[in-house]
Amino acid sequence: MWNMPINMEESLFKKFGKHAKITGAIFVLLGIVGIVFPLFMTMATVVFVSWLLLFAGIFAGTMTWMSDRGDWMGWLKSFILVGISLYMLFYPMSGAATVGLLLSIYFFTDAFASFVLGMNKRPHQGWWLWILNGLLSLGLGVIFVLDWPFSSLYLVGIFVGISLLFDGIALFMGGNFIQKIDKDL
Questions:
Q1: pLDDT at res. 182
Q2: In terms of C-beta density within 10 A (0-12 exposed, 13-18 middle, 19 or more buried), how is residue 72 classed?
Q3: In this predicted structure, what is the pLDDT of residue 4?
Q4: How far is the C-alpha of 75 from the C-alpha of 1, rounded, in Å?
Q5: What is the pLDDT of residues 125-151, one digit of tens each?
C-alpha cells in the first residue's frame, strides 16, 4: 500500500523547493523575534492556542448538534474548550502560565519516555542518546517548574522561538535539497 511510486511533476519540485525556502526564511525570522522578544512570542503563542481552542470548541459543539443533541459529554467538551479559550484570551498572563505548565508536563513525560527507551535499548549502540535526551527534557521541565508561573512569561516565548528557528533552518535546507534534486532530474 505504501510502496506505490509517487509521480511528481518537475514543476512541483520547483514549487515545493521555492515555497519551503520562503517559509523557512519566515520561520527563521519569527524564531529570532521570539528569542529576542520572548514576552511578545509568549503572548502570540497564548493567543494562537486560545483561538485554536475556541475553534475546536465551536467545532465540537457543531458536531454534537449535528450528531446527537442529547450527548451531554459532547456539550461539556465544547463548553470547556470555549471556556478555557475565552479565559486565556481575556487573562493572557494566566494563559501563559497554563501553556508553561503544559510544556513542563510535556518535558517531564518526554524525559520519562526517553529514560525508558534508553534503558530498554541499553546494550545496543546509541542507547546513551536516549538517556541524554531524557536528561535534557528533565532539565527543561525543571527549569519551567522552578519559577512557575513567572518563568512561563519568557520561557514559552524563548522555546517557541528556538523551535521556529530550527524548523525554519530545516525547511530552508530541505528546500535547497529539493531544488538540487530538481536540477539533477
A1: 62
A2: exposed
A3: 47
A4: 39
A5: 777 778 887 888 888 888 888 888 777
